[in-house]
């Protein structure tokens, strides 16, 4: 890495000096090269919901909303590597991460700059075993921001600072720091079934012994072999973010929706109109 490397710490916690923040800082401290640490606390940023207008896929390829999304995206574009850390909130990552990701069709305008930045992800849960899908959510954050996921972990700690009280927090921070500086894919944990395509370890079990990776959507089979569950997955017909080319193809496919909509506009309108006026909307009183 050059002397001007920037590590962006993406914090999914509103809590100042909380576990997510100190873990990112510890990862930074464990880096051996010359790095600058920048920090971004997503929950405190004004990132509004995507309006599903698809404007960001056309023309300038920029989201038309004027809020902090652009500041966050610029920080991501400028960094050399990033670490995303979120607490578990109700078995999932903090919604601040999702609010940013939901604006992610705007990432397609920056594929060249975003693709393949070294990135690591960590989920922090207050109760052992109660992380739910938080690890998958932080891994998904890296995937959809087109980073090269070099490592991920789940750590436990409820009180601010607790995550670094034991040795495991610091050793995992060291492992993630080394992964940022060492090219190559994440080393898989021995004995844990992993997706053959992307290496993730979160699955949905389907009928007939098939299994789907919840990070990259590859499907395949799973079986017990010598007392261990093994998984063999293959990329499907609609590979999602496996390669830079697949990202560009997906953007093209999305742009094609406009023509597909225009072609079927009449029949779609007939379906939708049938439901117009059904139900009473609850709306906030903004007076
Ligand atoms: C609203 C809320 C929901 C939470 N939900 C969970 C949960 O589902 N599972 C869990 O293990 N911990 C849960 N926690 C605990 C936090 O994940 C834990 O305290 C974590 O260390 C917070 O990280 P921070 O210090 O970076 O904010 C929750 C905390 C809050 C405030």
TrEMBL record:
MF (Gene Ontology): oxidoreductase activity
> Which InterPro entries would you find in this protein's record?
Flavoprotein-like_sf, FMN_Rdtase-like_dom, ISF_SsuE-like
Keywords for the protein's UniProt record, in alphabetical order: Flavoprotein, FMN
The UniProt record lists the keyword Flavoprotein: yes
**Secretion signal: which residues?**
none
Pfam families assigned to the protein according to its UniProt record, in alphabetical order: FMN_red (PF03358)
Q: Organism's domain of life?
A: Bacteria
Keyword presence, Transport:
no
Give residue ranges for domain NADPH-dependent FMN reductase-like: 7-130
Kindly provide the name given to this protein in its UniProt entry.
Multimeric flavodoxin WrbA-like
């Amino acid at each position: 890495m050059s002397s001007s490397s920037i590590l962006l710490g993406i914090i999914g916690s509103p809590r100042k000096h909380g576990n997510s923040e100190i873990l990112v800082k510890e990862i930074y401290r464990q880096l051996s090269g010359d790095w600058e640490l920048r920090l971004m606390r997503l929950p405190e940023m004004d990132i509004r919901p995507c309006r599903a207008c698809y404007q960001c896929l056309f023309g300038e390829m920029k989201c038309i909303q004027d809020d902090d999304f652009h500041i966050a995206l610029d920080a991501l574009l400028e960094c050399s590597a990033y670490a995303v850390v979120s607490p578990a909130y109700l078995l999932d990552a903090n919604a601040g991460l999702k609010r940013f990701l939901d604006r992610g069709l705007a990432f397609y305008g920056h594929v060249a700059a975003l693709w393949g930045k070294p990135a690591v992800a960590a989920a922090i849960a207050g109760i052992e075993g109660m992380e739910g899908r938080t690890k998958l959510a932080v891994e998904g954050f890296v995937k959809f921001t087109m980073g090269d996921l070099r490592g991920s972990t789940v750590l436990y700690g409820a009180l601010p600072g607790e995550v670094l009280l034991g040795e495991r927090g610091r050793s995992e921070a060291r492992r993630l720091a080394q992964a940022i500086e060492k090219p190559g894919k994440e080393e898989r944990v021995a004995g844990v079934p992993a997706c053959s395509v992307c290496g993730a370890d979160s699955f949905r079990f389907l009928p007939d012994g098939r299994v789907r990776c919840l990070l990259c959507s590859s499907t395949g089979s799973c079986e017990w072999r010598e007392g261990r569950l093994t998984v063999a997955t293959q990329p499907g017909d609609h590979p999602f973010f496996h390669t830079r080319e697949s990202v560009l193809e997906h953007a093209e496919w999305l742009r094609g929706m406009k023509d597909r909509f225009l072609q079927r506009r009449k029949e779609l309108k007939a379906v939708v109109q049938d439901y117009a006026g059904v139900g009473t909307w609850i709306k906030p009183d903004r007076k």
